[in-house]
Inverse folding.
């Protein structure tokens, strides 16, 4: 898993804007990459709509937003149009970028194990370094966490329960 301070893995992917988006083309810009499993599924739609609903707040903090899945550009465009998404979706059909970011791997659903996209989000700073990483992501409240990070608000550390000593 990538962590803050790590160099962001290089990528170059086709986007719904019609041009390729790459790490090098974004140099000098702060951006959010969020990896999601599939267009127009309940959790992925909610996550995309949360990013869309908060796009002005994200842009106020100087961040561009890009959603990435293995879906085709045609699928992405339908998804964008249906839900009014005004940020680019990038197509990663071989999951190479997802793998590079650690957003692809073993998952489990209803006891079934399989390989797939791990819902993950990365903030990349102007120097091309990971500024923040969340994986796996719980959709509810996640965009607010991203915005809080961009604003420099540090979330309180989560307390882990103490283990009771055996007598």
């Amino acid at each position: 898993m990538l962590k803050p301070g790590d160099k962001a893995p290089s990528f170059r992917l086709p986007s719904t804007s019609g041009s390729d988006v790459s790490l090098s083309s974004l140099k000098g810009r702060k951006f959010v990459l969020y990896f999601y499993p599939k267009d127009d599924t309940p959790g992925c739609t909610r996550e995309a709509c949360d990013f869309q609903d908060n796009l002005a707040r994200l842009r106020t903090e100087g961040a561009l937003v890009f959603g990435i899945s293995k879906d085709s550009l045609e699928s992405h465009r339908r998804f964008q149009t249906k839900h009014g998404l005004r940020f680019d979706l990038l197509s990663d059909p071989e999951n190479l970028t997802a793998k590079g970011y650690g957003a692809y791997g073993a998952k489990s659903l209803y006891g079934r194990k399989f390989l797939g996209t791990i819902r993950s989000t990365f903030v990349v700073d102007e120097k091309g370094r990971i500024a923040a990483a969340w994986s796996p992501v719980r959709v509810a409240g996640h965009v607010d966490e991203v915005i809080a990070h961009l604003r420099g608000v540090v979330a309180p550390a989560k307390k882990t329960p103490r283990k009771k000593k055996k007598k």
The chain is about 25% helix and 25% strand. The chain has a mean pLDDT of 92. Strands lie at 12-14, 20-22, 30-35, 63-69, 88-91, 104-109, 112-117, 120-124, 130-134. The longest strand covers residues 63-69.
